[in-house]
Write a structure and sequence with these properties.
about 260 residues; alpha+beta; Transferase(Phosphotransferase), domain 1; eight-stranded antiparallel sheet
Length: about 260
C-alpha cells in the first residue's frame, strides 16, 4: 500500500506477521514462535510500522542493509522514519546491547546515526540515506576537488574523534558499506564490530582505505592529487606511535587537507 514514503509499502506492526515482511522478524530461518516474541518486543519500542524500501533485499522484501549480525529496514517511530536493525537469529551474539552502547558512545562525539531506542533484538536509530562513499566518489567531476577535500577532511576528523573517545570502529579499513555521504556530510555507520578494548585505529584504517585501496584511491586521484605514499606511511606511523592532535594534523597536511 502507498504510505508516508511515496511508493514504498508501509506495513503496520499489527499486520507484520501476515505480510511478506514478517520474515524479517526471524531471519534467515523463520520460526513463528520467535517472530511472535519479537513482534511484542518491537511494539514495546514504540515502532508503528515498517517501510519497505532499500537497495538490498531479503527474499523479495527491500531493506536498507543486510549483514552478518542483522538486517536494517526503514521503520516508523511516532510517524518519523528511522532505521531499525533486527538481529539475525543466527548472529554470533545474543543481543544488540553492546552495539547500542557503542553507538551511544559514538554519538557522544557527534559520530554515527543518532541512537533512539534498543532492546535485545532491535536497535532504533536515525535513518541515514545517501550514497556509499565509493559510489559518491564515482559520481564526482574533475572540477569538484574542493568538495572532495571537504568531505575527506570531515571524514578523517570523525575518525579522529572516535580515536579520542577510545572507540575503535573495526571496519574502516574496508569501509565500502560503512561510510555514507548524506547531503554532502560523510556519516560513519554500523558499529556492530566496534570495541573499547582494542587499540583504536580509526584514522590509520580509514587513511589506508582512502589512499592505499586501489579502487578508492583511483577515484580520489581522478579529482585531487594523491599524497606521496612514503610520506603518508611516515605520517601514519607517527600518529600510530603517538596519536596526538599534532600528529593528526600532520596526517591531514600530507593528504593535502590542512587548509
Amino acid at each position: 500500500m502507498e504510505g508516508l514514503s511515496g511508493l514504498s509499502e508501509v506495513v503496520p506492526v499489527s499486520r507484520l506477521l501476515d505480510s511478506e515482511a514478517g520474515v524479517l522478524l526471524s531471519y534467515p530461518r523463520f520460526d513463528p514462535v520467535v517472530a511472535e516474541g519479537r513482534l511484542e518486543e518491537l511494539g514495546g519500542l514504540g515502532v508503528d510500522a515498517l517501510v519497505l524500501r532499500g537497495r538490498h533485499t531479503v527474499g523479495d522484501v527491500p531493506v536498507m542493509g543486510k549483514g552478518h549480525v542483522g538486517v536494517v529496514v526503514v521503520a516508523l517511530l511516532g510517524g518519523e522514519e528511522v532505521a531499525l536493525k533486527v538481529r539475525r537469529v543466527d548472529a554470533d551474539r545474543a543481543s544488540l546491547d553492546a552495539e547500542a552502547g557503542y553507538l551511544r558512545l559514538a554519538n557522544g562525539v557527534s559520530v554515527g546515526p543518532i541512537f533512539r531506542a534498543s532492546s535485545t533484538n532491535f536497535l532504533v536509530m536515525e535513518l541515514v540515506e545517501g550514497d556509499y562513499l565509493v559510489d559518491w566518489l564515482g559520481g564526482l567531476g574533475s572540477s569538484e576537488g574542493g568538495v572532495l577535500r571537504g568531505v575527506l577532511k570531515r571524514l578523517l576528523g570523525k575518525a579522529r574523534r572516535l580515536d579520542v573517545a577510545g572507540l575503535d570502529h573495526g571496519e574502516l579499513s574496508r569501509a565500502d558499506r560503512h561510510v555514507i555521504v548524506s547531503g554532502g556530510d560523510p556519516r560513519i555507520v554500523d558499529f556492530e564490530s566496534a570495541s573499547t578494548v582494542r587499540r583504536c585505529a580509526n584514522v590509520t584504517s580509514l587513511a589506508h582505505y582512502l589512499f592505499f585501496n586501489r579502487r578508492v584511491s583511483g577515484l580520489i586521484g581522478g579529482v585531487v592529487p594523491l599524497p606521496a605514499r612514503e610520506e603518508l606511511i611516515g605520517a601514519l606511523g607517527g600518529y600510530r606511535r603517538g596519536p596526538s592532535e599534532g600528529a593528526f594534523l600532520g596526517v591531514l597536511d600530507v593528504c593535502g587537507l590542512s587548509a
